[in-house]
Write a structure and sequence with these properties.
heterodimer, A: 332 residues, mainly alpha, 2 strands, 75% helix, globular, B: 289 residues, ABC transporter involved in vitamin B12 uptake, BtuC, 71% helix
């Protein structure tokens, strides 16, 4: 589709340009804070989507890797004075390694019970970090020393700098997804997602592919963990291993379009904007209202448009071109 | 020492009876409808609030209010199956998992909005009473809950094995297509299974009320136990879920007694991980019993 291809690249350029100049135009720290949240959860969503979207291994335990990344870099920084940039990559490696035994256990179950097992492993990790205060400050957590302007220690004076860091992370995750989507691995992932037994029958080494994609997904999610605690200068088990992280990772992908490159980004923009509007309407954040609305949106998407907003856009685009709406490749 | 162990085992068995009601519901839905109901815990929560409000405003005893909470939740279950779950039954996991998950999020957060996060308790005349046998003691409220829970589990088992509808359910659990060919209406069977499972969750809520607080997140405690018990007792196996729930109650109680007050969940996760590592097919057999 040459016509679509040209438009795609133009649109991509426009989006990239807009993303680059956005914090220069809108400078209120409230707004930039929201942009950072959107980029961060898009990034986590894209990381989740690699495994949850393409291979349909529906994890609700990605907080495990978010937390491991956050704790690895914080422990390295506070106890050993090592820069969180190095800690971030180390955290990613720790998370990728941790995904091996966790995956070994959880992949023994399929479908919904895989999901439950991932919830349990993330909760178990949170309990471990709550219990063992010797190396990780227990339930109280710790504040991360504010060094002012220290780019080498992943600390900046302006929010805009944090914005560019997380924008870079998101770009990296999108690039990885784009490369994988086009490689043999992408096709194997979709085959596993469609029907694991059939994929194995035609020679796809499903356990190996699932293991590899879980490692990549865990690695990326851990980078988000480091970024987040550096951004808020605080860490405790309830923040780092919050179940809400796991929920949001899955939710933004499903609402935006599961198993699509841009789905998680679109899902995050819609959900976070909704949540911000709700909060400004209702004044302070009324407990429960945000997740109530999220769950209604999720229900609506599942019942009426399981391909998510990307599916909706795709159909609208096809109709615009005067074609019969085609089914998306990754129908759920 | 021995007395402490026996006391811990008794406490575990008593709470295990409540876990059993929740896990039998989960396993019944999984066995018949072939989905996992992530919202099962929230229906325990609803059962608790029904009993709480009946007790507070009408003075109804929480155990008696079972006759309200069970039918109400049965009807809710039938409606949910007929209008929501039915639309996502198919080969794909994603809509099924996230529909019931969305339901769980919705009910939990609605409860938070409507009832706030406050703990609510009902005090009955027997809440503080206990039977004493030598050095051992059995709290009256928990014993009543356990006995009623076992009776309800037995009633469900008898229903599945003696009535036509129950047999149709087991047939649909074994092979949906063949059951349909034999003239069983799958949607009707699914509605009854979902309703019955929710009625059990509602019963668990009412039975808990005399000795447990109601709050929006309360269901999470029980649903986690239920999921582990259902894996441990083999997916879809009612008897397995019952035995596994009692085991989990005892394991948790022993953990609290001998490891520390906050180690209950650690024991639960350890059991899940050990099961997955060494016996992922669970302790029971494959068929629905």
């Amino acid at each position: 589709m040459a016509d679509l291809g040209k438009w795609k690249w133009l649109a991509l350029g426009a989006v990239a340009l807009a993303a680059l100049v956005l914090p220069q135009i809108v400078t209120s720290s409230f707004a930039v804070d929201i942009f950072i949240r959107i980029l961060l959860f898009s990034f986590i969503g894209v990381a989740w989507n690699l495994m949850g979207g393409y291979a349909k291994q529906l994890s609700l335990g990605h907080a495990a890797y978010f937390g491991l990344g956050a704790y690895t870099s914080t422990i390295m920084q506070i106890d050993f004075g090592i820069s969180p940039w190095i800690g971030m990559v180390t955290g990613g490696i720790v998370a990728a390694l941790a995904s091996l035994p966790i995956g070994w256990l959880c992949f023994r179950l399929r479908g919904p019970y895989f999901t439950i097992a991932t919830i349990a492993t993330a909760q178990a990790l949170m309990l471990i970090f709550l219990k063992f205060r010797d190396f990780a400050w227990g339930a109280e957590g710790t504040t991360i020393p504010n060094l002012g302007s220290a780019p080498l220690m992943l600390q900046f004076e302006t929010k805009a700098s944090y914005y560019y860091v997380v924008l870079g992370l998101l770009a990296l995750a999108l690039l990885i997804t784009w490369r994988i989507e086009r490689s043999w691995m992408g096709y194997y992932l979709v085959a596993i997602g469609e029907d694991e037994d059939a994929a194995e029958a035609v020679g796809v080494n499903a356990p190996r592919i699932k293991r590899d994609i879980y490692m990549i997904s865990a690695f990326l999610t851990a980078l988000a963990g480091t970024f987040y605690v550096q951004y808020i200068y605080f860490i405790d088990p309830a923040t780092a291993f919050s179940f809400n992280i796991s929920i949001e990772a899955a939710l933004v992908s499903i609402v935006g379009g599961i198993g699509t490159l841009w789905g998680p980004v679109i899902g995050t923009v819609v959900l976070e904007t909704t949540s911000t509007l709700l909060q400004s309407w209702l004044g302070s954040s009324t407990g429960g209202i945000q997740l109530t609305v999220y769950s209604l949106i999720l229900t609506a998407i599942i019942l009426w448009r399981p391909t998510g907003l990307m599916g909706l856009f795709n159909e609208a685009w096809q109709r615009h071109l005067g074609r019969k709406p085609a089914r998306m490749r990754t129908s759920p | 020492m021995l007395e402490t162990v026996v006391q811990a085992v008794i406490n575990g068995l008593l709470i295990g009876g409540i876990y059993a009601l929740v896990s039998i519901g989960v396993t019944l839905i999984f066995g018949v409808v072939k989905i996992v109901n992530f919202a099962q815990g929230e229906f325990v929560m609803i059962g608790m609030y029904i009993s709480y409000f009946l007790a507070t405003y009408f003075g109804v005893d929480p155990i008696v209010s079972l006759v309200v909470s069970m039918p109400v939740l049965f009807v809710i279950g039938v409606l949910i199956q007929h209008f929501l779950i039915r639309r996502v039954l198919g080969p794909n996991d994603m809509p099924q998992i996230f529909l019931t998950f969305a339901l769980s999020l919705l009910l939990l957060n609605l409860a938070l909005l409507l009832f706030t996060a406050n703990y609510r308790t009902v005090h009955t005349s027997y809440s503080d009473e206990a039977f004493h046998f030598g050095g051992l003691y059995v709290p009256e409220a928990k014993l009543i809950a356990f006995v009623v829970a076992m009776c309800l589990s037995g009633a469900l088992w008898a229903f599945l094995h003696t009535t036509d509808l129950g047999k149709a359910m087991r047939a649909a659990a074994q092979n949906r297509d063949v059951a349909t060919l034999m003239g069983i209406n799958p949607n009707r069977v699914f509605c009854v299974a979902f309703g019955a499972a929710l009625a059990l969750a509602g019963a668990a809520g009412s039975l808990l009320m005399p000795f447990y607080s109601a709050y929006p997140f309360v269901g999470q405690v029980f649903v986690l136990m239920a999921f582990v018990a259902v894996v441990l007792g083999t997916l879809g196996n009612v008897l397995g879920a019952l035995v596994a729930s009692l085991m989990m109650g005892v394991a948790e109680s022993l953990g609290i007694q001998f490891v520390g007050a906050d180690s209950g969940l650690i024991v639960v996760f350890a059991m899940l991980l050990l099961t997955l590592a060494f016996r992922p097919q669970g302790l029971g057999g494959g068929r629905m019993r």
